[in-house]
Design brief:
Number of strands: 9
Strand order of the largest sheet: 7-6-5-8-9
Bound molecules: N-carbamoyl-L-aspartate
CATH superfamily of the largest domain: Aspartate/ornithine carbamoyltransferase
Structural class: alpha/beta
Oligomer: single chain
Number of helices: 10
CATH class of the largest domain: Alpha Beta
Length: about 300
């Protein structure tokens, strides 16, 4: 039987398709509770710690909402200021302390590999809420859930990933999951922000159908899902390099005129300038419902990891 009980969630690649499908199914059961229509206390007495060393609105708040909607409690911090990290405490010491206070830990940290390290140190399950340019597995789960809800299935859909494919952890995680689900993957980015070669190689080894586009409008014509991302300014070693690519793509009404009728546009958010607000009122725009789906999906995950 598939079980996620006590499992660390560090990379999407460590979940099987069956496990992912179990989470998505459980998320459906959570919907009325996520909307506040039904009350549940299945996580009563459990405590979630949210350790956020990088800015976050959606990931942290939707985890907190998810925990509270299921009757659990939340502790944590949203920046390292105000914690003993400022006195020089190491991440592993912080984790060893927090595991004494909580039943499950969500960590967001600028260093790639930090969540893995935390999981090795912690006897309590650790969920990766984003580790630098590495992975963001729970974002991927809600992205998959959104595609499934909006388009019925993930299999054989053409998903175009647009933007910062080099530093974007959301697209790194999502690409692996799309390969697992036999979706077709389209890639469009400024030339300096291409998907890392090693990820492309992994995807090909998994048998994924991948197509790189040089023109955004060609990609849009073929897409079932257009997954737009922000250029990850904070990851550029040199601000001048960021300035060269800033504003280099933007989705506005005009470029969508040849899009498929049922195209959905997603974005992990925050958006900076990549999607013009005039797109928000079109039937294609799904990024706000996508951010809401973070709640039932994270509820499902907390329940499956904490109680099975
Ligand atoms: C993303 C992240 O933190 O990687 N945000 C999120 O979790 N929804 C995307 C981003 O910051 O651009």
């Amino acid at each position: 039987m598939v079980s996620l009980k006590d499992k660390d969630i560090i990379s999407i690649r460590e979940l099987t398709r069956e496990e992912i499908e179990l989470i998505l199914k459980e998320a459906d059961n959570m919907l009325p509770i996520a909307r506040g229509e039904v009350y549940s206390d299945i996580l009563k007495g459990k405590i979630l710690a949210t350790l956020f060393f990088e800015p976050s609105t959606r990931t942290r708040m939707s985890f907190e909402t998810a925990m509270q909607r299921l009757g659990g409690g939340v502790i944590g911090f949203s920046s390292k200021e105000g914690t003993s990290i400022m006195k020089g405490e190491t991440l592993s010491d912080t984790i060893k302390v927090v595991e004494g206070y909580a039943d499950i830990i969500v960590l967001r940290h600028p260093a790639e590999g930090s969540a893995r390290l935390a999981a090795e140190v912690s006897s309590k399950p650790v969920i990766n809420g984003g580790d630098g340019a590495g992975q963001h597995p729970t974002q991927t789960l809600l992205d998959l859930y959104t595609i499934k809800k909006e388009l019925g299935e993930i299999e054989s859909k053409k998903v175009v990933l647009l933007g910062d494919l080099k530093y974007g952890r959301t697209v790194h995680s999502l690409a692996y999951a799309l390969a697992m689900f036999n979706a077709e993957i389209g890639l469009v980015s400024p030339p300096t922000l291409r998907m890392p070669e090693e990820i492309i190689n992994d995807l090909k080894e998994m048998g994924a159908k991948i197509k790189e586009y040089s023109a955004l409008k060609d990609a849009i014509k073929e897409a079932d899902v257009l997954y737009v991302t922000r250029i990850q300014k904070e990851r550029f070693p040199d601000p001048a390099e960021y300035m060269k690519v800033a504003g280099s793509y933007k989705i506005a009404l005009k470029i969508l005129k040849d899009a498929k009728e049922n195209l959905i546009i997603m974005h992990p958010l925050p958006r900076v300038n990549e999607i013009d607000p005039s797109v928000d009122v079109t039937k294609h725009a799904k990024y706000f419902i996508q951010s809401f789906y973070g709640v039932p999906v994270r509820m499902a995950l907390l329940k499956l990891v904490l109680v099975g």
